[in-house]
UniProtKB/TrEMBL annotation, chain B:
This is ABC transporter permease subunit. One of its GO terms (molecular function) is transmembrane transporter activity. Its main location: membrane. It comes from Nocardioides agri. Belongs to the binding-protein-dependent transport system permease family. HisMQ subfamily. It is a multi-pass membrane protein. The lineage of its organism: Bacteria, Bacillati, Actinomycetota, Actinomycetes, Propionibacteriales. The keyword Transmembrane applies. Coiled coil: none annotated. One of its GO terms (cellular component) is ATP-binding cassette (ABC) transporter complex.
């Protein structure tokens, strides 16, 4: 499904996971930073092909949740499984698992000393053992797809924020991920660049990608999300369809929060 | 001055020995210092502790002591017994200099945004791959000037080898000054030879900086 949307041919390396279970399943996840309880008994299950938007005030633990899912943060309690398999401990198995989970950061985090093309081919070559020529061909296709194909030889610093973020998405897609995590992918961008990034994300969502997206972009949530998860103070306070959530929030805290972001 | 010209072979041999000391020590220090830096920023606490202890011990010990250890103390306990003098000199200088290289490289590692290392891990690179592909190449770019300073100090530090019988530049200079009234000319000649070496390092550093600045 994704392959057709991205105009890719049979060269896609990893088949969809055949394991049982939801794409992601968090059960009773707890996390402390010292005395600070940042994730409180989080239960969240995301089906394959589902798009979940996570929304909530600053400091509510959204980033930590994303980072816990590919174990950039360890958790202190509960369990996280991907396609039925528990997250591995440190080491090779963890690296392999991470390669199946694409992550897009607020601050792009492109490799500054590598060209756009090299940014996208690094993972396939180093992690998947792809041949350079194949990796480059695929990278160029992905870069075309996200609309930065003509920037392939440039360095990240020569690109606008919106272009850098689209390269970051292509870099993640080059690994044929089973799941994509987006942590506020547009909040470091100027307004005119937000749309170009969201368009790419909407496309991905339509193509059947499983996505967890931390964002305050209501437009994206309404068009692309199957579900909105509202977090506050480290806990999931409310879950609903986007329409229901935005027009008819059930909890006091969600109403307060929506009132604040709608003022702007 | 005539002495110098008549025996210029001796001068050139000394110059060559200093070059060997500097180049070999430079390569060893860079390699070992980089490994130490990777250990110090790595996830394995035993290695972190070992590298930190090494740097603390070595940085706080005078280089002369390091030479005394390698040339005098170590053979007494059976180490480096048949080792050639040049190699012993390289060992003493490298053990010492790598601690400083480690700290310079580590400052460069800290200058690489953490997010890039996370992005590398997020696409499935291991810690080692993240270091060699993403972090260290950028760290090196950031630390060319301080590393050049360390290498320049190291080149001049090779002169301590003279005390232990290596006829490198300083050793040879003493030989000439002992046998001549024309001290000034001899000093100047040998000083110029050191300056040539150090300037080569500076020029290399400037070249690298220019190249790496262009590529980003
Ligand atoms: N490495 C860390 N060490 C200590 N505390 C941390 C760390 N990372 C995050 N925190 C704290 O954990 C809490 C949750 O942080 P998190 O970044 O997950 O929130 P968030 O919902 O993503 O907020 P924002 O909308 O500002 O990005 C915050 O109070 C934050 O200060
Ligand atoms: Mg955040």
């Amino acid at each position: 499904m994704l392959t057709s949307v991205l105009g890719m041919t049979a060269s896609s390396t990893s088949a969809p996971r055949t394991g049982e279970g939801a794409a992601v399943d968090l059960a009773g996840v707890n996390k402390w930073f010292g005395d600070l309880h940042v994730l409180k008994d989080i239960d969240l299950s995301v089906e394959r092909g589902e798009v979940v938007v996570v929304i909530g005030p600053s400091g509510s633990g959204k980033s930590t949740l994303c980072r816990a899912i590919n174990r950039l943060e360890t958790i202190d309690g509960g369990s996280i499984t991907l396609a039925g398999e528990p997250l591995p401990e440190e080491g090779k198995a963890l690296a392999r698992m991470r390669s199946d989970v694409g992550m897009v950061f607020q601050s792009f985090n492109l490799f500054a000393h590598k060209t756009v093309l090299e940014n996208v081919t690094l993972g396939p070559i180093k992690v998947r053992g792809a041949k350079r020529a194949e990796a480059e061909e695929k990278a160029r296709r992905l870069l075309d797809r996200v609309g930065v194909g003509h920037q392939a030889e440039k360095y990240p610093a020569q690109l606008s924020g919106g272009q850098q973020q689209r390269v970051a998405i292509a870099r993640a897609l080059a690994m044929d991920p089973q799941l994509m995590l987006f942590d506020e992918p547009t909040s470091a961008l100027d307004p005119e660049m937000i749309k170009e990034v969201l368009d790419v994300m909407v496309d991905l969502a339509r193509g059947g990608m499983t996505m967890i997206v931390v964002t305050h972009e209501m437009g994206f949530a309404r068009t692309a999300a199957d579900r909105v998860v509202f977090m506050s103070d480290g806990a999931i306070v409310e879950e609903n369809t986007p329409d229901e959530f935005f027009t008819n929030p059930r909890s006091e805290r969600a109403r307060d929060f929506l009132a604040k972001i709608l003022k702007h | 001055m005539d002495d110098l010209l008549d025996q210029r072979d001796l001068v050139l041999q000394a110059f060559w020995l200093t070059i060997q000391l500097a180049v070999l020590s430079g390569v060893c220090s860079l390699a070992f210092g980089t490994v130490l830096a990777a250990m110090r920023v790595g996830p394995i606490s035993v290695l972190r502790g070992a590298a930190t202890t090494y740097v603390t011990l070595v940085r706080n010990t005078p280089l002369l002591l390091m030479f005394v250890f390698v040339f005098v103390a170590a053979p007494n306990i059976g180490w480096f017994v048949g080792t050639p003098f040049l190699l012993k000199g390289v060992i003493a200088v490298s053990v010492y200099t790598s601690a400083f290289i480690c700290e310079a490289v580590r400052s460069g590692v800290n200058a690489v945004p953490l997010g890039q290392a996370e992005a590398a891990r997020a696409i499935g690179l291991t810690f080692g791959q993240t270091m060699t592909s993403i972090v260290l190449p950028q760290a090196f770019r950031a630390v060319v000037p301080p590393v050049a300073s360390v290498l320049i100090a190291m080149t001049k530090n090779t002169s301590i080898a003279a005390v232990f019988g290596l006829m490198e530049l300083t050793g040879r200079m003493r030989y000439f000054t002992n046998n001549s009234a024309d001290d000034t000319a001899i000093f100047l000649t040998f000083a110029v030879l050191y300056i040539v070496l150090v300037e080569l390092i500076s020029a290399g550093a400037i070249g690298l900086e220019r190249r790496w600045r262009a590529a980003r």
